[in-house]
Specification:
The protein contains eleven helices and eleven strands. By secondary structure, it is of the alpha/beta class. It folds into two domains: about 70 residues, Winged helix-like DNA-binding domain superfamily/Winged helix DNA-binding domain (Arc Repressor Mutant, subunit A); about 210 residues, 3-Layer(aba) Sandwich (D-Maltodextrin-Binding Protein, domain 2).
């Protein structure tokens, strides 16, 4: 038995006539009768009582009709559901992002825009450091990630750079450079302790900071480890050191921290989007295209 048999059966039941049903179906009446005989043989019961004026359902036919009358509608709904899932209108999306990326307006606009355009997609978010996000993406635990571009990327990961965001200095308010109004020469911080993310937790901000210091002609004299952007700023506020952070961090107002822009050569850190190229779902593709449209519009 297949959907064709059911479609034929329902058409005959609607027309109460084999000839008219065959015309509506666009087939000959003899082949239609043969298909119904095959169906009756498979079921083991006669479904139609042939009469001089047409055909009426037998008791077995009535029971069969009650069981199959919704199948065409269900098939239509199934096709629509599959098409919507294939286009990313339904399903789920798990988005990962780092703490510094969470502060950027791109993350907020992307999440808000995605929920507006695809409200029936279940959106889950997960914050972690860049190394953890890359591991989760490679293991298909998340679908897409917004992060600061790491130098090491697994073979199954596609990493797309979106833009470079300037780094700014985060200083304790009592620091001699904190009260200045002009741009900060990074070299003036060469004797300071730098609050840095340990390389075992996240390398992107750490590497960007060290590159900026190297371009300024020095290596930080000492380090104070801090695992996340909030702990970095907390330690700066406590006077345990200075740090370089993405410019979007400026909106994070923490008592005891003063932000200063840097003079040339400017330091920057890349914001990227990453996907598992072996597991790009329609929803992930939609999110990727949305992010690009926001970046290009800005």
């Amino acid at each position: 038995m297949d959907i064709r048999h059911i479609r034929y059966f329902l058409q005959i039941r609607e027309e109460s006539n084999f000839t008219r049903a065959a015309e509506k179906l666009g087939i000959g009446q003899p082949p239609l009768s043969m298909q119904i005989r095959d169906l009756e043989r498979e079921i083991g019961a006669q479904l139609f009582q042939r009469t001089s004026s047409g055909a009426v359902l037998t008791e077995a036919g009535k029971a069969f009709y009650e069981a199959v009358k919704h199948i065409p509608d269900l098939m239509t709904q199934a096709k629509i559901a599959a098409a919507r899932a294939a286009s990313g209108e339904t399903g789920s999306l798990t988005l990962g992002f780092t703490g510094t990326v969470a502060l950027h307006k791109l993350t907020r606009e992307s999440i808000r825009g995605f929920r507006t355009q695809w409200p029936e997609v279940e959106l889950n978010v997960n914050e972690a450091n860049s190394l953890a996000l890359m591991e989760q993406l490679a293991a298909r635990q998340i679908d897409v990630a917004l992060l600061r571009a790491p130098q090491r990327v697994a073979d199954n990961i596609q990493l797309f750079s979106l833009f470079d965001e300037p780094l700014i200095a985060a200083l304790p308010v009592e620091h001699p450079q904190a009260s200045q109004s002009d741009r900060l020469d990074l070299k003036t911080l060469q004797q300071d302790r730098f609050v840095l993310t340990p390389d075992t937790l996240g390398t992107s901000l750490r590497e960007a900071t060290l590159r900026a210091c190297e371009k300024a002609g020095f290596t930080p004299a000492s380090e104070q480890p801090a695992p996340h952007i909030v702990s970095i700023l907390a330690m700066v506020s406590a006077g345990l050191g200075v740090s370089l952070v993405p410019e979007s961090t400026r909106q994070f107002h923490l008592e005891g921290v003063k932000y200063r822009r840097l003079c040339h050569p400017a330091a920057a850190i890349t914001l990227s989007i990453a996907l598992n190229k072996q597991n790009i779902s329609p929803a992930a593709e939609n999110f990727y295209q949305l992010v690009n449209s926001i970046v290009n519009h800005d």
